[in-house]
Design goal:
The complex is a heterodimer of chains A (386) and B (186). Chain A is of the alpha+beta class. Chain A contains seven helices and nine strands. Chain A has one domain. Chain A has a seven-stranded mixed barrel. The relative contact order of chain A is 0.15. Chain B starts with 6 loop residues before the first helix and ends with a helix. Chain B folds into two domains: 91 residues, Rna Polymerase Sigma Factor, Chain: A (Orthogonal Bundle), CATH 1.10.1740.10; 74 residues, Winged helix-like DNA-binding domain superfamily/Winged helix DNA-binding domain (Arc Repressor Mutant, subunit A), CATH 1.10.10. Chain B is mostly helical and 186 residues long. In chain B, 71% of the residues lie in helices and 0% in strands. Chain B is built from nine helices and no strands. The chains are: A alpha+beta (386), B mainly alpha (186). At the A-B interface, helix 1, helix 2 and strand 4 of A face helix 2, helix 3, helix 4, helix 5 and helix 6 of B.
């Protein structure tokens, strides 16, 4: 008894003589060069969609820049105390409780370099008014102050209730691209876990950066404050490995570098300025991806998982400052991978992540301002067993 | 006159750009190459184009053909056609694989008597309905006799991937055959 596949083979191997005579004429015409070969069929719709998605993402990245609304700038009239010992923090505090935010490292400002003239700020006409209540930040939790306001006023950068929305940047509509279980977990995580985003221990930060000149307690020892933070959209890039589990499922992991840059505008009694803060993170994501479609050149997928990030360096105006501790995030991503070779591809992944609150976070970055973060990662990926 | 030529002589005449010899080559092998192409690409028009491309390329490169016995000329031409079909599949293939990630093939194999009753066109249609990758692997392994290792190299997949893809293709075809036989029994 023959195998059913052998019978299929016998039936299909032999021709059935269905070729019309016109095909022979076409063969003669092509062979003689009279009729050119037909152009390869394209599938334009797929490439139109892929191009539109890529163009949309590029437009979002390039055109949507963080803006600092005027009402995010808070000017609090402050008397200049004689001694830099905070006795009355109420003059410093705003109406709402002011958590300690060890955010800025005060670099020692050389006297010669520090401008003594007050740089006029166009945004500060309302000095006499109490602080302008900014719009409610996105974070649902209310940050309660710790016992550190007294310590804080010894710092030139008085911790204020820095508006969480000093950077007015909404998650772009392109976030609709992201799907998967990790996205659902990222959405549910804020409900499941609430916590104080403020680090509990900040004295170490202030002891190092609160007053850079112990010989002169007066240096910077005013109730000056940080005006606002301007966070730049984070850059993410990395190297990734895809390990197939089944025909569609793949485990993705690798090493990811993130750069969070922030411009900090501060106003002291006799000076103001802007300092640049840069924080560098290395992360290891672990994700399960589902391939929606693929061909030789392109893979489209969605996935979800988690990521652990370590801050490997942080500087403010070029000087090292304390770094964040370990960060744990849930994430959901969708992506497009351009297959340069059979196993090597270049990926672009819009990603939504939720970073869990952590007491080890000491820096004010785009991520701390937006724990529910939309970002775009790119990099190289090796696909094993493809 | 050209109908009596053996393969080696026919190839020799074609290498001299003898138009009549080329037409004789078409008459001998076009049907079989068309049937092969139709198994791979599924669509008759696409198979026709593929067949013409394969024959024209074979005639352009006829100087590289080496006679290795009876049937070797068709084997050489069919190899060209298979490579062209695979390249086309790899260019166009969107791997929209059905959600049967795990294959549990509990369907009994059809008997020889049952298979004889199934028309050739039905088999072609069911094979054409297979996803591109499954169709290619099934044709390469079951009909054209390639090994999983060779299939992996041709399609850019692993041997394991080729084996699992073949299992899914077999399961899908057996489901179609079983369903057709049940309908015929009613």
């Amino acid at each position: 008894m023959r195998n059913w596949e052998d019978i299929v083979k016998d039936k299909l191997e032999e021709p059935d003589g269905t070729l019309p005579e016109s095909v022979f004429a076409e063969f003669q015409a092509r062979r003689s060069g009279a009729a050119p070969a037909p152009a390869a069929k394209r599938s334009p719709l797929v490439w139109v969609v892929a191009t539109a998605v890529a163009a949309g993402l590029a437009a979002i990245l390039l055109l949507r820049k963080p803006s600092v609304p005027e009402d995010s700038i808070r000017i609090v009239p402050q008397p200049v105390p004689a001694v830099a010992v905070a006795s009355d923090s109420t003059a410093v505090e705003a109406e709402e409780p002011l958590p300690v935010r060890p955010l800025i490292a005060q670099a020692p400002v050389p006297k010669a370099a520090a401008p003594k003239t007050v740089a006029p700020k166009a945004e500060e006409p309302e000095v006499a008014e109490p602080e302008i209540v900014e719009p409610e930040p996105v974070r649902p939790e209310v940050v309660e102050p710790a016992e550190e306001p007294a310590v804080a006023t010894a710092s030139p950068f008085v911790p204020q209730d820095t508006p969480a929305r000093s950077v007015d940047m909404h998650i772009a509509p392109a976030a609709g691209v992201v799907a998967g279980g990790g996205l659902l977990a990222a959405l549910l995580a804020p409900i499941a876990g609430k916590g104080d985003l403020m680090p509990a221990e900040t004295s170490h930060y202030y002891s190092e950066y609160g007053n850079s000149n112990p010989d002169n307690p007066m240096e910077g020892a005013t109730s000056d404050e940080v005006d606002h933070f301007t966070h730049t959209f984070p850059f993410k890039g990395g190297f990734s490995v895809g390990i197939p589990v089944s025909d569609r499922l793949r485990i993705t992991t690798g090493l990811e570098y993130s750069l969070y840059q922030t411009r900090v505008s501060y106003t002291m009694v006799e000076m103001s300025g802007v300092k640049k803060q840069a924080a560098h993170y290395l992360g290891v994501p672990l994700r399960l991806d589902w391939t929606l479609a693929s061909n030789r050149w392109l893979d489209v997928y969605v996935g979800g998982g988690a990521s652990g990030d370590w801050c490997v360096g942080a500087t403010l105006a070029g000087k090292e400052i304390p770094r964040d501790g370990f960060n744990f995030s849930l994430l959901g991503a969708g992506g497009v991978q351009f297959n340069m070779t059979r196993r090597l591809g270049l990926y672009v992944e819009p990603e939504i992540s939720w970073t869990f609150p952590s007491e080890k976070r000491v820096l004010e970055t785009y991520r701390s301002a937006h724990p529910f973060l939309f970002s775009v990662a790119t990099g190289l990926r090796i696909n094993l067993d493809k | 006159m050209y109908r009596e030529l053996d393969e080696q002589a026919l190839a020799s005449c074609c290498s001299k750009r003898d138009r009549l010899a080329e037409e004789e080559l078409y008459r001998r092998y076009a049907d079989r190459v068309f049937a092969l192409c139709r198994r791979y690409v599924g669509d008759a028009d696409e198979a026709k184009d593929l067949m013409l491309e394969a024959l024209i390329q074979a005639l352009d490169k006829i100087d590289t053909y080496t006679f290795r016995g009876k049937g070797s000329l068709y084997g050489w031409i069919s190899r060209i056609a298979v490579n062209k079909a695979i390249n086309r599949i790899k260019r166009q293939r969107w791997r929209m694989v059905p959600l049967d990630a795990r294959v549990q093939d509990n369907i009994p194999d059809p008997t020889e008597e049952e298979m004889v009753t199934i028309p050739r066109e039905k088999l072609l249609a069911w094979i054409a309905e297979l996803p591109d990758l499954r169709r290619a692997v099934f044709n390469l392994y079951c009909i054209d006799g390639y090994s999983h290792r060779e299939i992996g190299k041709m399609l850019g997949i692993s041997e394991t991937g080729s084996t699992s893809t073949l299992a899914k293709a077999r399961k899908q075809l057996k489901e179609k055959i079983t369903q057709y036989l049940k309908e015929q029994d009613r």
